[in-house]
Amino acid sequence: MSARKQMQQPHACGLSRRDFIKASAVAGGAAVFLGSLPHVQRAWAENGVDVAYGQALPENQIYTVCLQCNTGCPIKVKLQDGVAVKIDGNPYSPWNMQPHIAYDTPIAEAATIEGALCPKGQAGLQTVYDPYRIVSVLKRKPGTPRGGGEWVTIPFDRAIEEIVEGGNLFNEGPVPGLRESYALADADAARDMAAFVKKIQDEPDAEAKQALIEEFQETFAEYLDLLIDPEHPDLGPRNNQVVFAWGRLKDARGDFIKRWIGPSFGSANAHGHTTVCQGSLYFTGKAMSEQFIDGKWAGGQKFYWQGDLRNSEFVVFVGASPFEGNYGPPMRVPGITTNQVERGMKMVVVDPRLSKTAAKAWRWLPIQPGTEAALALGLIRWVIDNERFDARYLSAANKAAATAIGEPTWTPATWLVKLDEHGQPGRYLRASEIGLRAKQERPLSTDPAKTYEFDYFVALVNGQPVAVDPYDTENPVRGDLLVDGVRLGDVTVKSALQIIADSAREHTLEEWADICGLRPRDLEEVAFEFTSHGKKAVADIHRGVSQHTNGFYNVLAWYTLNALIGRFNVGGNAAAGRTVHAPHLHIVPSSTPPPPVSPPAASTTAPKITRKSPGQWNVKPANSVSRPVTSPALALSEKLAGALGVRQDKGNDGDWEEF
């Protein structure tokens, strides 16, 4: 064995070998770290230092869009040897940098400027290079059953051929392809048949409906072999047997696909996951933004409101955690944190889980899952009972009244609603029904040469009925807000706001709190604070509220709470996520009546509520047997079910008429 040479260091060095190695490691790591920082890169470049961090070079960057969530943040992807190794936010975008850099900033300069991006966006690298990511066409193995989980890989060209031509693709017999399914190719015939089918569908009498079907078969005899079932023409042509279903799809690709499958191919079946994911948010916004056009409710837009978090003083996040997700942490979080630090904004987070957002909140309400509407109704009750709503805003019954007080929107809160024999709300009262004002012939907005009958709505003003034209710009009407059971001729009416109050008063505050698993004082404190900031308070909701079978009514309850304290689409309150022209907010019953509901048995004492199972409670009035009820839309589902008459889009913008 050879002797190991003893290492010596200078006597005056004062630095051991171990310390030297540790210091070198720190220095080297610092150099790598500093080299990754944009401002250091710029400083080095300005002083002639070679930039070793190649990902900071513009030729190693690609600008694109993140689809890790539905926000679609602009991103900058950094490459190393052709492989994506880092994702940052796009500094040109106001979603990722506030304020964003000027659009005329050279790409070379922008290469060392990074925008913000949330962890989910950063994880896009894992999505791209996931070893289980499907990167080729998979086909069910011929001869195996559906759901058997057996697949074979086929070339892309072969997949296109099989989709277009069909054939015995699975050893189960012939399968039609797109070519065979493109049965009806006459756009004019499709349009005429669709109009006739609508006529059949609108006929209420069974015998008359059958006669129309026979007339349809005679009129379109030459096309019957192209239909799915001539006895059921409403199913349409065989074109409708082609379904294009997608998951995450945004504009551009979505526009192309919809135009191809609908106007071009002639199928009505283009469907995406949004209809089951957050349709409740969109369709509640659509219902609330519908305008009274040409004698009917129409023109609503599918969107949802978000809180103006940069200018709000008080925010209630319900089923939303913007510090972790919720449509754009890079865009929303800077506004929240800046507002908290500089202006003291308070947050309440309603979430069963102590989220990162809840950890920074003024109050965390660990609500029972599925009881979001119960909480909203409890807050609505407190606001109405304590007269903390914005009476000035809500009393504006038409555009002239809203304009007079400087409001950009108005609601039908004061409009009168007719009650049926059971005392249940139905349609709006019209002026002609009580002899207040006759119907008028007015020109159609789409064709001024044609007319429709306009029938005024009605509100009480100091107890006297007054005709209301929602869009009258010269005659302001400021109505009475809480009208309860007033008799006008042969009709008993309530104001729309009174109907909302009745729904909220179906339970005491203590009962609403019990349903939610909270303390009554939690509701009182939040409601008081919510109504203590004028217009600068908002309930900001998302999928935790909407993604349920009763999500529409959950969303409606929280939007109604926002409306009680004032306007939408102004600073500090609820703003539309995109440009929406909806001056008339339709937050209360429309002309569509709810289904009849038997009145509950009278009770002289408050009902006893006990939990039956997750999401269900037994409600036992003093003189009745227990009955199970589902809490999330307990009052809304009974009082407002169907009242907003949500209309789904039909037809399309092309030459075809889908049917």
Please characterize this protein's 3D structure:
The protein has 659 residues and is α+β, with helices and mostly antiparallel strands. Among the domains are: 33-118, no CATH class; 137-181, no CATH class; 305-390 and 504-582 and 632-639, Dimethylsulfoxide Reductase, domain 2 (3-Layer(aba) Sandwich); 408-501, no CATH class. The strands form eleven sheets. Strands 15-14-13-24 form a four-stranded parallel β-sheet. A four-stranded antiparallel β-sheet has the order 17-16-23-22. The chain has a three-stranded antiparallel β-sheet with strand order 1-2-3, with no helix packed on it. The radius of gyration is 31 Å and the shape is globular. The chain starts with 16 loop residues before the first helix and ends in a 20-residue tail after the last helix.
Rg of Cα set: 31 Å
Termini separation: 93 Å
The share of residues in helices is 25-40%
Task: Tell me which oligomeric state these chains represent.
Answer: single chain
- Which regions contain 5 or more consecutive residues with pLDDT less than 50? 1-5, 22-36, 578-582, 588-659
Please give the number of β-strands.
28
> What do the pLDDT scores average to?
82
